[in-house]
Write a structure and sequence with these properties.
With 144 residues, this protein is mostly helical. The protein has a single domain, classed as Up-down Bundle (Four Helix Bundle (Hemerythrin (Met), subunit A)). It contains 5 helices and 2 strands; from the N terminus they run αββαααα. Strands 1-2 form a two-stranded antiparallel sheet. α1 packs antiparallel against α2, α2 runs antiparallel to α4 and α4 packs across α5. The N and C termini lie far apart (35 Å).
């Protein structure tokens, strides 16, 4: 893949991943805060699921940039992601572990309402997405 193609891929997919994160932030706003907890589990679960999908898009893009072959099937297991991330970047593996545990399992499946926990998941999601950030992108990426 040429440098121009890589930049185009980064720009397109970084923008898409950030759109996912913005949509997730909007869902969290609908969840309403009560102290250190969100009020509405439905919106928290939605936000976590959307954010997690944004991270998967970023990881797929990262793998394409690193010439990691993506399986033909659309649905990939977390094992695929952790195995390949561990070969490339140990620090990113820590981010992925938090994203998977917090956003996918605790947030999406279990509906965890703790604001601090959900924000930690979002912060780690932004760290992963930043790996595909084009050089000319702005400074978006604040936690909800």
């Amino acid at each position: 893949m040429s440098i121009e193609e890589q930049q185009e891929l980064k720009q397109k997919n970084y923008a898409a991943a950030m759109r996912y994160m913005e949509n997730a932030r909007e869902a969290l706003q609908k969840a309403k805060k009560e102290g250190n907890y969100y009020h509405d589990r439905k919106y928290v679960r939605t936000a976590c699921g959307v954010a997690y999908n944004g991270v998967l898009l970023a990881l797929d893009t990262y793998f394409m940039l690193k010439d990691v072959e993506l399986p033909k099937k659309k649905r990939r297991s977390i094992d695929f992601y952790t195995r390949n991330v561990s070969k490339i970047d140990g620090k990113m593996l820590k981010y992925l572990d938090v994203v998977y545990d917090v956003l996918h399992l605790d947030g999406y499946y279990d509906g965890n309402l703790d604001i601090r926990v959900i924000h930690a998941g979002f912060a780690n999601a932004y760290e992963i997405i930043s790996k595909i950030k084009p050089a000319d992108a702005g400074n978006a990426g604040a936690c909800p």
